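agent: user wants the structure for endopeptidase La from Photobacterium phosphoreum. delegating to structure tool.
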Amino acid sequence: MPLAPLTSDKLYRTAALNGLSDACKSTKHLTPLDEIVGQERAQHAVEFAMSIKEKGYNIYAIGRNGLGKRTMVMRYLNRHETNGNSHTLYDWCYVSNFGDTRCPKVLKLPVGEGSSFKKDIENLMKRLVKAFPLAFDNELYYSRAEKLKSELATKQETTLKTLTKSAEERGISVSITTQGDYQLVAMNGEEPHSEDSFAALSANDQQVFENTINALEVELRGIVRKLTEWEEQYSDKQQKLDENIAQEVVGHCIKDLQLKYKKVVDVKAYLTDMYADILDNIDIFLEENEEQVALAYASLDKKMPRRYQVNVLVHQSDTCKFPIEVEESPSYHSIFGYVENATYKGTVFTDFSLIRAGSLHRANGGVLMMDAVKVLERPYVWDGLKRALRAQKLNLSSLEREVTLSGTISLEPEAIPLNVKIILFGDYQTYQLLQHYDPEFKELFRVTADFEDDMPRTDISEEQYARFIASIVHDNDMLHCDRKAIARIIEYSSRQADDQNKLSLHSADIANLLRETNYVARASNATMIRCSHVEQAMLNQELRVSRLKDHVMQSFVTGTTLLDVHSHAVGQVNALSVIATSDYQFGAPSRITATTAYGSGEVFDIERSAELGGNIHSKGVMILSAYLASVFGKTATIPLTTHLTFEQSYGGVDGDSASMAEVCAIISAFSGLPLRQDIAITGSMNQFGEAQPIGGVNQKIEGFFDVCGIKGRTAGQGVIIPESNVHNLMLRKDIVEAVSKGEFQIWAISHVSQAIEIFTGNPVGIEADQGFYPSDTVFGLVQSKLNALRR
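agent: tool returned. relaying tokens verbatim.
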């Protein structure tokens, strides 16, 4: 009994929308879906990872682009608390380390207090800049300083007067310069002795003067030492006076801050250190030269006001319970932060106030999401990320120093404790590479969120999909879709999934279609998106990317590509293949021919010999060779050599979806029976001749249907496909209509013998005793011819 072709209801599954109520006329009546549909497995993985605080439970999200991975994670994180396991958030600041300015200290403050503390310190500096000059420029300070100075002057003057008087009584004049030099001169009455007058003295008088002067010098040196000690004592007293006044000023200004931040341990300790440092560097607040002040603020000198600034590295909002950072360009500096350099009057310098935060700093206590490929593409980023996750610390090191291996001076800031979840988005190939080549990967990314490409198509899932469509409409302020438009978009999703019983989860494709449909509807001044607008948008999409298809089809119009869709031919069959570009694929038929010659039973694959055949195609030829040998070579070698090729194929052939077509061509060449050329076939087979499913079945059928339209359509034309591909059929409406009218046929077979019967119109034959087939069957005819050759 001949195999019946498929009925039209098997070629396309319409969306009945049984899950929607009859009152639902458009997306306006649907509640938008606030989660990504069909990704429960991935969502559970994310929920599991976010619920565990231990190190290493970071997430690698696997899936192709367009599945809505990032959108799903973002929506989940924005909606859900992490089961109470979220980390406490802090504001992080860098301040000067007064003991070692190359190693800035980090301050941990409660959320929202970082900027407040910075402003408090700035206000403190402003108060001190005003208060110090006032404290040292008033009558009280001057009188106290003058008193100390007068005490010193009095003591100095009294001592020197006593010495001078004693010297005068002994005939010696004492003079002391302002530079501290002194002279002792022998007196001749009221005038100093000249050289002549001194020489006129007796030797005894001269000796008396010399002895007196020597004694006075000894006494004077002792007095000078006393004067120096008194100067030092005066300086100490003056400094003590200044310190006491400074302590009063600083203590008065800083006491409110110390009281305000007494419960913040880090800040309390810093204020104590800053208090002591200000007392050691009072002079920077008393600088009068504006240029010197500017230089102090811009230089690296330790006595500078910028040493008291607060660099707020991370400031968390009071309303932020869970920071979520998305790093689009994961370079080393953008992730781990960096230290800027500044220039002042030709001098390049840096300090703690020029430390800048990276995305890891901002995500601390929350989540950082990045693209895995981009992370791996950037130098040193992957190693730095692993180092930070292992140590659970953020060390801001100079990349330039590590790369150049030089001793360039740079800062070494104190490390910040790190509590963060990393979510990497990537494809399966990248995941495999990391698993295979990086043993640390599985320890740091223990959770895999595997995103589905499709979901089962049921009434419930269609209802969810309709709500998903409604969410896109609402989010993008589009025109609402009526019920038929919703159904058509769901049918389009099934076509994208290549399965009647599944829906594609590539949300980007659906969102793009809706945007273009909305454009078409608005351009036609419609108030609602209708099915016709969806169809037009789909046609527009295909028109933009189908240039190659039009070029290939033109070759059938001009006869450049030889193809017969009407007659019969021996050893010749129409096979189907898919041609794909980066964003489009279409089917096109091609001719396979087989010729035979006396030989040893070998199937000679011309494509493989010409190095145009791929490994999978070669495997398919070997499988069909095994099938032919199992049928016709059980007792003796097949005495024919077969040459098999794709005609007019110049770009290479791969895949095994033509193996059934090749078997049909070979059987025709063996038997001499002609094959119908108005039928094309696609499908692979195993060694037992069973038909196996192939990909792109819709495009292949549509490609042959289009060529039949070009060459001239007849009622007998059709396509043979594997039975296991029936559920993949979501064909164009014009093909469904042609089948319903009997103008085109589609046969679904389970064995290659059924294809041979359809092509030849004769039964294949059932194997009888001792491996013989009836003589009036296809296999019987082949067997008799082979036996004749063997004899």
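agent: one observation worth passing along. The domain at 561-790 is CATH 3.30.230.10 (Ribosomal Protein S5; domain 2).
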